[in-house]
Design a protein that fits this description.
Number of domains: 1
Helix content: over 70%
Number of strands: 0
Shape: globular
Largest sheet: none
Order of helices and strands: HHHHH
Strand content: under 5%
Length: 149
Amino acid sequence: MSQLEQIPRSVNLLGWAGVLPFAGLSALVLLDWSASKDTIEPMLIAYGAIILSFMGGVHWGIAMTKTVGKNIPIQPWHLVLSVIPALLGWTATFFDTRYAIAVLAVGFVALLIVDMNWASGNCAPAWYGKLRLQLTSTVLLCLGAVGIS
């Protein structure tokens, strides 16, 4: 694997650190922690909404940097695409756990598809698609486990 395809250590560590709340909160729900229905599940949904919004912000940044120094106008659809995850995450907070998890899962899968396309199209670093696949797969496993519990 070339140096450009290798996920930088700091990025890898921070990415996996961001997955820890998904794993920890999901584990508490699955272990039937006494407060899971009242406290832990809403915390999981809120965290999912925040991360979905954060990932949308990544797309805003990518859209902005694609045009820097190239005299290319920003494509409005890139900016719209970057705002949709925040709106999906916010919408998820209005539903009960199962529906909220479904909304979040759809958002994470859609972002993964876009991320993989952007990484393969040189809009993001070569390692970005690999990182997103690993992190998103783990997040979906955590959300899915709570959703079917």
